[in-house]
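Schema walk-through. Below, the input block comes first and the output block second. Nothing else is stored per chain. Lengths vary across the set, and this one has 249 residues.
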Amino acid sequence: MTDHPDWKTIGRRETIGALAAATLGCVAGCLERASLTEYESSPAGVDSSVWEETGYEPVVVESVASEREVGVGPVTEDVTAINYLTEYGKSIDAGPLGEQRTAAFVVLSTPRVEFVGREYNPVGGMSADELVAEIERAVDPLDDVQFETERTVTVLDQSTVHSRYVGEIDRFGRSVDADLHVSEAVETDDDFVATVGVYPRRLRDGELETVRTLAEGVVPAVDADANAEFDADDESVLEEAVADDHLDD
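--- output ---
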């Protein structure tokens, strides 16, 4: 019987912070010249017919602001980018432990920062490897992430790279193997949209194609109030334990 430690993985604020921190790497002075200091994305998500079909449910739509001072010498500007993270989760019946969330899919939207025809938000040009590196640096329990394979998916009518990585999530001295899926960002009129899927590797047979289905079901905007219920105490993408031997009974 397989040992399944309790685990929590990528924290929402950690993940979005890692991916969004780069969005404010603007060339000095560009935002000052444009007389704009705040950019806000729209919350992207998954079409309701798609998440219902796959057995996932909305968990939260959360906004996170990234701030940075930009400028040269004495001329600086405080710039804010407001990003959104929309999370969906799938639970299984773990017997005496009740419903346990074992897989998650998140959609990141981050605003485009454009001036005189040039884009200053680097997320739009980041490879999956670069996005994963940001996540791995920000999330302490995530270790030994290795690229495994990639394929092309269609997100918002655009072809993009969808890569799968394998890694270990350490929690309280114990670890579990996990699959991490990342799609490179695509564009809307005003934003960049990327996706992240994560689940225990033992669930790959059931979740591999599901993650692709969710990625291809992304829509550019969702109603935060209608599409998710926020739990203020829930700070992780996989908030529930991947519990012990009851999951194999």
